[in-house]
């Protein structure tokens, strides 16, 4: 199977193709995993200069055009489209659902027999504005996405809001976790020493301090669970610090939280194995997620997931998850207690098994190729 991955956006601060590939590690790891599973994989990446790079059996084609780095929903640069179509792939994999014009142009240039799969990457949401402008935008988005043969979500339930918004029609929906990780935790004792962490259990938060991640409910829930977890510690790692003043105030006004919570802040990716290795439980308060990169990394380390009951988390955590209701600190407290009861080594083993069988790169690559072959077969069967 020949697959071309089309990536239509880039960070303009990335100076060279190699820097981009080092930064966009899920782009490269996804491609490498599918190549290792037997596919022929290439990538076409919009960029501020033309270049070709070979890595791990994958060819990365960098294409320059005159559009802004973050492509609009109505743009489809000719240079980018032509470079993707020139790959003559069996499957054109488009990163993101926010490029309907790109999908439409790829369909026009590649013909009716090319299979196009658009993959949801979170962060974006369908236009639901009112009035003629909103209706016009939704119609254009819907018409573009309708030309894809399939739409890939981490969880099929995520398609509901897109259908309700009127931008998805009858496309086939694939359930494929969008990414995995190559991260592995540092050995526990060494990790705790390097991170300067102790506690029983150590609970880890990794996420932005924003309303969607809901850190205030998380610290409320941890406080309510504290009576039955006297040795517990909560480490909060974050880049975006939008709600940091509110979180600091909430922690400082509580004697219990002052003793339990450490606001770590930003941590370099190379240091994250120490924090994952030091922790026992991973907690998240997210209201929506495309998938959950930090959750996947935590599960690679065997951390028991205590996460909100949302579609992507249900698929990722599976039976190993302890789920709690959005915005409900009492529900979180109960879930934390459940995660810390019983045989923790058994819990960690079950989490690792879930990761290896469903979330690892080989597992995702195998499922992707199986689902894509099914789409290819059904497309051929429907051809006149």
- The averaged pLDDT comes out at 93
Annotation, overall tally of beta strands: 14
- The low-confidence parts are none
Measured on Cα atoms, how large is the radius of gyration? 22 Å
Shape: globular
- State the end-to-end distance: 22 Å
Q: According to CATH, what is the class of the largest domain?
A: Alpha Beta
CATH superfamily of the largest domain: Glycogen Phosphorylase B
**How would a crystallographer describe the biggest sheet?**
8 strands, mixed
Instruction: Give the count of structural domains.
Output: 2
CATH topology of the largest domain: Rossmann fold
* Percent helix: 40-55%
So, CATH architecture of the largest domain? Answer: 3-Layer(aba) Sandwich
Order of neighbouring strands in the sheet with most strands: 3-4-2-1-5-6-7-8
Relative strand content: 15-25%
The ordered string of helix (H) and strand (E) elements is EHHEEEHEHEHEHEHEHEHHEHEHEHEHHH
């Amino acid at each position: 199977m020949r697959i071309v991955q089309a990536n239509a956006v880039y960070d303009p601060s990335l100076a060279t193709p190699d820097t981009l590939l080092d930064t966009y590690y899920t782009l490269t790891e996804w491609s490498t995993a599918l190549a290792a599973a037997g596919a022929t994989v290439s990538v076409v990446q919009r960029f501020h200069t033309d270049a070709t790079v070979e890595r791990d059996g994958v060819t990365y084609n960098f294409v320059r055009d005159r559009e802004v780095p973050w492509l609009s929903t109505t743009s489809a640069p000719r240079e980018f489209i032509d470079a993707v179509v020139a790959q003559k792939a069996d499957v054109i994999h488009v990163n993101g659902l926010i490029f309907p014009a790109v999908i439409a142009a790829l369909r026009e240039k590649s013909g009716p027999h090319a299979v196009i799969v658009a993959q949801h990457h979170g962060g974006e949401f369908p236009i639901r504005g009112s009035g003629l402008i909103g209706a016009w935008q939704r119609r254009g988005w819907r018409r573009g996405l309708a030309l894809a043969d399939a739409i890939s979500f981490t969880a099929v339930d995520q398609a509901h809001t897109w259908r309700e918004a009127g931008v998805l029609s009858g496309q086939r929906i694939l359930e494929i976790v969008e990414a995995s990780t190559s991260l592995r935790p540092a050995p526990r004792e060494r990790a705790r020493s390097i991170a300067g962490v102790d506690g029983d259990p150590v609970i880890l938060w990794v996420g932005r301090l924003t309303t969607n991640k809901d850190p205030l409910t998380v610290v409320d829930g941890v406080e309510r669970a504290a009576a039955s977890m006297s040795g517990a510690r909560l480490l909060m790692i974050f880049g975006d610090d939008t709600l940091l003043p509110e979180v600091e105030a909430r922690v400082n006004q509580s004697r219990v939280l002052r003793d339990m919570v450490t606001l770590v802040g930003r941590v370099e990716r190379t240091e994250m194995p120490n924090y994952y290795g030091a922790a026992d439980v991973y907690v998240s308060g997210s209201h929506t997620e495309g998938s959950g990169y930090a959750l996947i990394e935590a599960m690679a380390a065997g951390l028991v997931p205590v996460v909100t009951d949302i579609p992507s988390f249900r698929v990722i955590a599976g039976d190993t998850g302890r789920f709690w209701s959005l915005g409900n600190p009492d529900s979180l407290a109960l879930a934390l207690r459940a995660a810390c009861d019983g045989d923790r080594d058994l819990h960690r083993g079950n989490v690792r098994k879930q990761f290896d069988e469903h979330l690892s790169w080989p597992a995702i690559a195998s499922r992707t190729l199986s689902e894509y072959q099914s789409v290819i077969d059904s497309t051929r069967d429907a051809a006149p």
